[in-house]
Amino acid sequence: MLTCHRRLCDLYMCLDLHEISTVHGFHVRQLLRELQLHCGVCGDVIGEKDEKLRPLPCYHIIHERFVVLKYYSKFAKDHFL
Domain of life here (predicted)? Predict the structure, then answer.
């Protein structure tokens, strides 16, 4: 449902149908508030835009870029420090 509203919001904005786009944008924000999905690392809201996410074993969801940083930091510590 969230993805549908987000895509419809973008589509109607591209078609210069701003009133309809605003309605779908409202539904996107409402669903995001209800779901309360936040990145476990940075705290940003998840779902406002297309982004790569990763689930952790503890069931938290984080941005994929933080997984890469985690492994890079571990590699650097193991090999250079």
Answer: Eukaryota
* Same domain flag for 30 and 44: no
User: What pTM did the predictor assign?
Assistant: 0.54
Q: State how far the Cα of 43 lies from the Cα of 53, in Å rounded to an integer.
A: 13
CB contact at 8 A, 39 and 63: yes
Its domain, for residue 81, covers 37-81
Q: Where are the alpha helices (DSSP H) in the chain?
A: 2-14, 18-35, 64-80
